[in-house]
Amino acid sequence: MTKYYPELDLQEISYGQLATKYYSRSLTALNGLIDLFGLEWVESEIVVQKITDEYIIKILGKDKLYSGIGSLERLVFLWEDIQLVKELKGFDELFDKLKTNIRFDNVDLEVSIAADLIRNKAFIELEPSVEKGFADCRFKIADCEFWTYCEISRRDNSKAKYSIEEKGEEISNLASLINPKKHCVILILKEIDDSEYSKIISWLKSNPEEGKLDDIAIFFTAEHSSDVTLKAFEYISTPISVRQSGDVVKGTFGSVYFHIPDKGAKSKLNEKRHQLPLNELCVLFIDLTNVAGGFTDWEKQIKFKNPVKHFSTIILFTDGIHSTGFRREMKIIDNTKSSNPLPIQVRQFFENITKIRLDKNLID
């Protein structure tokens, strides 16, 4: 294996957060991925900016800015996942997807879920044939004779996500202009429709006094250096998104606490049901990392009112960087009306798999 990265680079890439005991492990992963996919592929995941101006390079002492420990951890875990699945029949197709892009056709999720199934002592096959194409994988465990078929997907680029960014920017920017001497905070108390949103915008443009707009919103101010979170949560509850705007020169600063639920559960289930067989044990994994309040919103939407043969269980999950490093959290939603319910052994298998990446990190 060629050594492209020395230990010194790891300190720079992780901004000093990588624990010394993980240097060898991280170097093996980075250099191994470069051998597989090339230096440009790896750097597209860990470099946020390449600097070409010689003067800036001289000032900074470097020609690249890295995204930090989170991106490094993802690549290290991907390398280790590949080691578990690379000998499986069907991996060549996943490998070709990975060469295109780490997230191409959700291949990063397919590799990580397949690897976790193996870690949990399952026998696994990739890309098994089903009635109308191929599932992502299927597996067996020692004390169950039946195959369980898995489809793995993610929710991305939803209307709710774009709406949160667009409306959050407009509201926080207008709030910041009300009183430049204070941190101006807007709390949206409920899910609002277009007419209520317009009412909020008109209210903010009127330079309002601190107080309440009907049952829709609250406006209060605080000192710029103070933490407003505790006061905000006296009126609102999770799930919540926070967006902020301000002007350093003018000293303005505004925040908005609000939530726009993502309502994509039904369409996602309809999209994926035909990629799983009818009369088998079937599990749909859905990555909701990019959905604010995903577990809460989607669990409310996933109601099996009629018998649905395609899904024995839905597993929602999120990947994130916490104070302890990378964490994958999972929520299991059983289909109580399934004609193919999971046997108790398989259900317990999934309970175990939820813990496999629950605080996996390279920091401590």
Helix content: 25-40%
- Separation, N- and C-terminal Cα atoms: 27 Å
**Molecular shape:** flat
> What is the ordering of alpha helices and beta strands?
HHHEHEHHHEEEEEHEHEEHEEHEHEEH
Integer tally of domains: 3
Percent in strands:
15-25%
Outline the low-pLDDT stretches. Answer: none
Radius of gyration: 24 Å
Structural class: alpha+beta
Total count of helical runs of at least 4 residues? 13
Number of strands: 15
- Order of strands side by side in the largest beta sheet? 3-6-7-13-14-15
Largest sheet, described in full? 6 strands, mixed
Question: What's the rounded overall pLDDT mean?
Answer: 89
Structural overview:
The protein has 364 residues and is α+β, with helices and mostly antiparallel strands. The chain has three domains: 7-85, no CATH class; 104-158 and 263-353; 159-258, no CATH class. The chain contains 13 helices and 15 strands. The chain has helices spanning 7-13, 23-37, 39-46, 54-60, 69-85, 91-100, 107-119, 159-176, 194-205, 229-232, 265-273, 294-301, 344-353, and strands at residues 47-50, 64-66, 123-126, 129-130, 133-134, 137-140, 148-154, 183-188, 211-213, 217-222, 241-247, 252-258, 281-287, 313-322, 325-334. A six-stranded mixed β-sheet has the order 3-6-7-13-14-15, with helices on both faces. A five-stranded mixed β-sheet has the order 9-10-8-12-11. Helix 2 crosses helix 5 (69-85), helix 5 packs across helix 7 (107-119) and helix 8 (159-176) packs parallel to helix 9 (194-205). It is flat.
